[in-house]
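#struct-pred
JK: can someone run the complex with uridine-5'-diphosphate? inputs below
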Amino acid sequence: MSAPAYKRVLLKLSGEVLMGNQQFGIDPEFVGELAKEVKEAKDTGLEICLVIGGGNIFRGMAGAAKGMDRAQADYMGMLATVMNALAMQNALEQLGVPTRVQSAIEMDKVCEPVIRRRAERHLEKGRVVIFAAGVGAPYFTTDSGAALRAAEMQCDALFKGTSVDGVYDSDPKTNSSAKRYETVDYDTVLADNLKVMDASAVALCRDNAIPIVVFSIREQGNLAKVLRGEGTQTIVRK
Ligand code: UDP
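RT: done, structure tokens with the ligand placed:
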């Protein structure tokens, strides 16, 4: 299979990936391993935007389920994504990869606000740009944040690193005969409620023709492989 011509990609990692083998929070050693993979990908000449979730620290839905006001809990979730973004920036810069964090909730002591033209300039200069705080509004997720930034930054594809190696027709953890799709269209994902990203994120990618590449980030070296179009993955597209 020939390598797809990706020039600029958005990589979405869920917060849980940063936990490594812990049950909660951030494992700096594991974040360092992830940063090495991002560096390896960047060294091939790719422009990389990153969006990291916050589920390793706090999810608004979980707070709401325990009686919190949903919007308040979501703001806490967004702040969690900023902590993760700073952890990843630290790990990348320790490897010599210049990185800027832009947050959808302004926090000028720790990072920049989201400014598209400035982000463009960072990418041109070879910096990785990490977009934090999702879309900056409650009742959304970082999947929607990732879809929004991928559209805004005109990324060629959205790479969603998960603990599963693609999209299946049923849950591979509970059904041993679950079948993995090589490619699947957006409308099937939405109609069959396949576990890719939340519906608003998938719809935004569909409406802007952004392919979603779902792959496992748990396997070492896999990111570079899927960016070359190799390895196990599912591509969601038209
Ligand atoms: N969140 C939000 N608006 C956004 C992005 C995130 O309110 O635009 C909140 C929401 O509470 C969410 C939490 O931040 O549960 C962490 O993000 P997410 O659940 O997407 O993280 P992931 O599952 O990717 O680790």
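RT: quick notes.
The CA atoms of residues 16 and 128 lie 21 Å apart.
Residues 14-16, 53-55, 59-61, 74, 77-78, 80-81, 134-135, 137-138, 140-145 surround uridine-5'-diphosphate (CB under 6 Å).
JK: thanks, will look after standup
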